[in-house]
Design a protein that fits this description.
Blueprint lengths: L1 H12 L2 H44 L4 H7 L1 E6 L16 E5 L6 E4 L16 H18 L5 H8 L4 H33 L6 H32 L5 H28 L5 H25 L5 H17 L1 H27 L3 H12 L4 H28 L15 E3 L8 H29 L1
Parallel strand pairs: 1-4
Antiparallel strand pairs: 1-2, 2-3
Length: 446
């Protein structure tokens, strides 16, 4: 085995083309990691501006009626690990507003410098390894073995089984070592630069790295099998490009189209908002009709009626509207769960799903954000109605305590992670055996 390691190490690293490709991947990964660090630091600075603005805005509000109208904003704070997945995340720069309006709004700002923040396919560390790393592995898988006549000649000195499997193991050792050193080196460099990761985030990143290595090994083995199947055709490089394009671009795009079509079964969000608004206005209309029918009602009695309607709203219409929102959110969650199950069936589609979840700004990050908004909004409505109708003369006090209006996103592994790893490993094992079977047939025929 040591002899194979030395021989394959020389074959891989002595070739100038390979070295150029390794250097390109390393420099690109380093650059986009540095870019991710800068973007993360910028988000921290914007967080401070956001907190100060919201605090000052509340100080300028004179009455609780105004406070209910303006409300306050919640910022979706980027997780530190997102710097490696800036463009792989699903969500971008989100915030929401909590007020007495029944529609829950989630917005992404395009104001100022964010208007010019163009995101391409290669705009992060994870994307570079996915696109360029896969191309390198597919190419080196193609170059792994010689022609069938040459292998038949070597078979006189060594069994074909030993030659094939030891060559594959040796080349994967060096290639995996390169990616492990690169990724762990950049991860350590980011920490040395002052970015702190929690224990959970380090665990998520290392499991992400494990899947990345399995994915790249799968693509290497796919390159070997493609070579065995179409090696002697003049159109080999065309097939090589077709295979790479299909697994890296086409299948993920089909997966995206599939989840979009699945989402079409959801009723429009505005329909839910309209139904909630009607429930709210029904209560308002009932109160206005009472005042219209009793124009000479004393002020103290009006206030008592306001209190009565406020309590009635919390116990009836508000609960109905909360139920509507929760039911809609469950349907969204079902679409996400279906997308996760479908993505498991192929390694490249699952890699993209995993990257989004590891970033802290994936589909489940959205569900967590909505859950946080609804719980905070429930508390705010009770606070607002109490202060406006039960304590109408009190000075306006901010509902937000500490950093309650900052939602801290959480990097995570999908629940299907173990299944995704097993499926990818099974794909790799199948490709390995198929490549050997195909090679054995060709050697016997030559």
């Amino acid at each position: 085995m040591l002899a194979f390691l030395r021989f394959e190490g020389c074959r891989i690293f002595a070739e100038k083309k390979n070295l150029a490709f390794f250097l390109l991947i390393a420099l690109s990964a380093g650059y986009f990691t540095w870019s991710g660090v800068n973007e993360y630091r910028r988000s921290l600075a914007e967080r401070e501006f956001f907190v100060n603005f919201e605090r000052e805005k509340t100080r300028q509000i004179a009455t609780y009626a105004q406070y209910g109208t303006f409300g306050f904003r919640i910022l979706y704070e980027t997780a530190p690990l997102n710097l490696f997945f800036v463009n792989s995340s699903i969500l971008q720069d989100l915030e929401s507003n909590i007020d007495n309006y029944e529609a829950i709004r989630i917005d992404s700002s395009f104001k100022g410098d964010k208007l010019f923040l163009m995101r391409g396919y290669f705009r992060d560390f994870a994307g570079i390894l996915f696109v360029f790393g896969s191309l390198l592995m597919l190419y080196l898988g193609h170059l792994a073995l010689g022609s069938p006549p040459y292998l038949r000649f070597l078979a006189g000195r060594m069994s074909l089984v030993r030659l094939f499997f030891l060559t594959t193991a040796a080349r994967l050792f060096w290639l995996d070592l390169f990616f492990l050193v690169l990724v762990l080196g950049l991860f350590a460099g980011v920490q040395a630069g002052g970015i702190a990761f929690s224990g959970q985030e380090r665990t998520v990143f290392f499991f992400y790295l494990l899947f990345l290595v399995l994915l790249l090994n799968f693509i290497y083995l796919l390159g070997q099998l493609t070579t065995m199947l179409v090696r002697f055709r003049k159109t080999f490089f065309l097939w090589f490009f077709v295979v790479w394009f299909a697994i890296i671009f086409l299948l993920p795009e089909l997966s995206r189209i599939s989840v979009f079509r699945k989402s079409q079964s959801l009723e429009p969000a505005e329909k839910v908002n309209l139904e909630k608004f009607r429930n709210l206005m029904a209560m308002e209309k009932e109160f206005r009709e009472f005042l219209k029918a009793n124009p000479s009602t004393p002020l103290d009695q009006v206030r008592r009626m306001q209190k009565k309607f406020a309590v009635q709203f919390i116990n009836s219409s508000y609960l109905v509207n909360t139920g509507l929102e929760l039911r809609y959110l469950r349907k969204v969650g079902n679409v996400i769960a279906d997308h996760e199950r479908r993505s498991v069936f192929f390694p490249t589609t699952y890699y993209l799903f995993l990257s989004g979840e590891a970033s802290g700004k994936g589909y489940h990050g959205y569900l967590d954000f909505m859950d946080y908004i609804m719980k905070l909004r429930n508390r705010f409505m009770q606070f607002y109605l109490k202060r406006r109708y039960l304590e109408p003369d009190s000075a306006v006090e901010s509902f937000v305590k500490g950093s309650e209006n900052i939602f801290r996103s959480r990097s995570r592994l999908p629940r299907s992670y173990v299944v995704g790893v097993l499926v990818t490993a099974l794909y790799g094992a199948a490709l390995l055996l198929l490549a050997f079977w195909s090679l054995q047939r060709q050697v016997r025929r030559s």
